[in-house]
Amino acid sequence: MTGFAIVAYAGDAKTALLKALDNARDGHFEKARELVKDSNKSIVDAHNEQTKLLSKEADGDDLDVTFIMVHGQDTLMTTMMLKDQVSYFIDEYERIAKIEAKLGINQ
């Protein structure tokens, strides 16, 4: 069940991050940053589930590595990387919007 929880939390974070990118593209920078913060809560929840597995293994429990656990790890790590990229793109979209406003370009 831990693997499923990691996938679910990481998936929720990924969804929020993609919505954040859409919001930034549309010029809604505060909403975009709020969604990034929301995604971080899900990432922390996924990390907490991951820590439970690490603790069990550290305590000497013999854990079977399942496909869902591998998928959970992969989803979590790629979502964490996505978070960094989305944060960068939000800043860039905002920078471009400011430049366009100075130049009188309406989008």
From TrEMBL:
<feature type="active site" description="Tele-phosphohistidine intermediate">
    <location>
        <position position="71"/>
    </location>
</feature>
<dbReference type="GO" id="GO:0046872">
    <property type="term" value="F:metal ion binding"/>
</dbReference>
<keyword id="KW-0808">Transferase</keyword>
<keyword id="KW-0597">Phosphoprotein</keyword>
<dbReference type="InterPro" id="IPR003188">
    <property type="entry name" value="PTS_IIA_lac/cel"/>
</dbReference>
<feature type="modified residue" description="Phosphohistidine; by HPr">
    <location>
        <position position="71"/>
    </location>
</feature>
<dbReference type="GO" id="GO:0005737">
    <property type="term" value="C:cytoplasm"/>
</dbReference>
<keyword id="KW-0598">Phosphotransferase system</keyword>
<keyword id="KW-0460">Magnesium</keyword>
<keyword id="KW-0813">Transport</keyword>
<keyword id="KW-0670">Pyruvate</keyword>
<dbReference type="GO" id="GO:0009401">
    <property type="term" value="P:phosphoenolpyruvate-dependent sugar phosphotransferase system"/>
</dbReference>
<keyword id="KW-0762">Sugar transport</keyword>
<dbReference type="GO" id="GO:0016740">
    <property type="term" value="F:transferase activity"/>
</dbReference>
<dbReference type="Pfam" id="PF02255">
    <property type="entry name" value="PTS_IIA"/>
</dbReference>
<keyword id="KW-0479">Metal-binding</keyword>
<protein>
    <recommendedName>
        <fullName>PTS system lactose-specific EIIA component</fullName>
    </recommendedName>
</protein>
<feature type="binding site">
    <location>
        <position position="74"/>
    </location>
    <ligand>
        <name>Mg(2+)</name>
    </ligand>
</feature>
<keyword id="KW-0963">Cytoplasm</keyword>
<comment type="subunit">
    <text>Homotrimer.</text>
</comment>
<dbReference type="InterPro" id="IPR036542">
    <property type="entry name" value="PTS_IIA_lac/cel_sf"/>
</dbReference>
